[in-house]
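Incident log, structure service

09:12 report received: a user says their structure output differs between two submissions of the same chain.
09:20 pulled the input from the user's history:
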Amino acid sequence: MAAQLEQALAKLKTTGVRMTPQRHAILSFLLDSMTHPTADDIYKSLESKFPNMSVATVYNNLKVFIESGLVRELTYGDSSSRFDADMTDHYHAVCDMCGKISDFEYPPLSDIETTAAEQTGFRVGGYRLEVYGVCPDCTGITKH
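09:34 re-ran on a clean worker, output below:
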């Protein structure tokens, strides 16, 4: 993760984004987290280290990271947005019971964009694939 953090910091530097201690902590937390946290999760995890930091500070920094291409916002209907610092091509499995999101690998489905464009006339800018079900914690089944 240290290499990812260094790359992210270098990218921010080239876009003129000043690195504050809070910004560094939020980015580090996201890079270390595999849970796809909400802004509130990030705030609660860091508030003891940064007692003067607000939820608005977290949101504002997440917006900077999204605009810089370092973080992806995952929105799911009415629930809070979740944030993912893994910008590689990957997909998500979402638990219908607890909302847990887990990454999984699958070959890129780039032909979906071509097919969608041909059938709809849209200029497709991307896609997102999620599968839904019940996670092992909620079913009581452990992963083997």
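09:41 both user submissions now match this output. Likely a transient worker issue. Closing.
09:42 reviewer note: The beta strands are 72-74, 82-84, 91-95, 101-104, 130-133. The first strand starts at residue 72 and ends at 74.
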